[in-house]
Amino acid sequence: MRKFGLLGKKLSHSLSPLLHNTFFEDMGLKDEYKLYEVDEAEINNFKNYMLENSIEGVNITVPYKKTFLDKLDYISDEAKGIGAINLLYIKDNKFYGDNTDYYGFKYTLTKNDIDVKNKKIAIIGKGGASASVYKVLKDMEAEDITFYFRKNKLSKIEFPENIGGDIIINTTPVGMYPNVEDNLVSKEILKKFKIAIDLIYNPLETKFLKEAKENGLKTINGLDMLIEQALKTDEILYGILLSTQLKKKIRKKIKKRVEEFYENNGN
Where does residue 227 rank: exposed (0-12), middle (13-18), buried (19+ CB within 10 A)? Predict the structure, then answer.
């Protein structure tokens, strides 16, 4: 049995085991995907912990996406360009880092037929997730990109009066369960855009997306990005390329299970 997991600080609401276990089941694998909650004081020992416990790879979430950048043998070009890794794995006794959020966001745009070239784009937030989004947008030839963010968690974003454009993307956790009534962007600002994308997937429709939809915008949540980055993780860890047909089948099964999970947990 091969061992994988998710590394972070607070992971009780994570859907990652559900995603990867669905993949294992579909591929007839008996491998495991566990949650590893680690405190900052212990994080520098985690590579040794992986070796001692035969853990071959972990996805990484906040606050550790930049922790291992200068501690690995090899880092992918995407992860270097983003300045964050969300996948740490061991191959031939060497430590590798990658960023599968990049592939997840790119898939989200492609699936929804969103052409970002020559579009005016607003990114809400300046954290690790925004860096992945920015790199994808630049690689897809977007040029007019502006970041809007809070000075601290208690402040509001100071939007200019003439704000407007084609696409507005929330890369912050504001609006995520359980704080579902939170939203950084007013209806008045949302009205000035055509497409709203939220990287959040819990709930599937945040207040940001709900108000965008009410004002006539096309809306896209973070579920496709979540599923695609998980499938890319599994492709890297197993050294395989999944066929389009198989990916479609697994995506469908995961989506169904995620929706059932939310229904059963009341959020």
Answer: buried
Catalytic-residue membership of 65: yes
Token code pair at residue 196: 């709203």
Does the pTM of the predicted model rise above 0.90? yes
Catalytic residue among 3, 34, 65, 253: 65
| Helix and strand numbers, DSSP H then E, in the chain | 9, 11
- Give the homologous superfamily in CATH for domain 3-98+224-265: Leucine Dehydrogenase, chain A, domain 1 (3.40.50.10860)
pLDDT tens, 127-153?
A: 888 999 999 999 999 999 999 999 888
Residues of the chain with CATH 3.40.50.10860: 3-98+224-265
Binding site feature residues for shikimate? 14-16, 61, 86, 101, 201, 229
Q: How many residues in the chain?
A: 267
